[in-house]
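QA checklist item 7 of 12: single-chain prediction sanity check.
[x] sequence parsed
[x] length recorded as 245
[x] structure emitted
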Amino acid sequence: MGTTHDQDKTRAGAPTVDIDYHSGAFVSSDIPERMAAWNEVRGGCPVAWNENGDGFWLLADYPSVHLASRDEATFLHAYDPDATDGVDYLGVISVPRPPLAGKFVIGETDGPFHTALRAGLNPHFTPTKAREIRTFLDQTANWLIDRFIERGTVEFIDDLIAPVTAIATLRTLGLPGRYWEKHLERLPPHGRSHGRCGRDGLRRQRRVAATAVDDRGRVARSPGASARRRRHRDRPDRGRRPAAR
């Protein structure tokens, strides 16, 4: 994604929209309200200039995103502000970009260098490699589910998806599992939920990290965890819940 230095000429006559999806009012609004805002954009002009965040092109429907993501000659992932070809390459983290955000290496690299990085990484992420750590990932997911199952509610990103991903990433890199909460702290905004990504959420994640994963990356299993899950699954008021695999 990039913008030219002369945006006025680039977007002359183009439709504009005003949707600030980073604003507190938008994020805290009900889901139907947010969906209505997006549907209004899609129903009008799904490709338009958004006046928020210093201005950027907004692609709001699947066909437009699908087309742009496959047109690497026009739309780049690169982060290279003030490039010599007259284009400000904005990267992919977010608009506006966090002030202290560095380059998101492989995610914001194109061309031969990206190909070289992929060649080095791909052998470590094959289906065979994934099968090798499946048991560990199952144990990690089950342990985290035990932490919130009795609560009756879950924030999937904060409570399950982000922690499993962080723990698996550290294990793949050969780093101590106990540092996964620091890994989460460095996620860009789109990598966390809007529900609980503040200080309270991080404190809660640190408490989980202190007991969930030891120095060798092994998952700590609390006594009676499976029994609690079976009890919860068989409760008449909740219906049956399939056991985690």
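[x] summary fact logged: The two ends are 39 Å apart (CA to CA).
[ ] second reviewer sign-off
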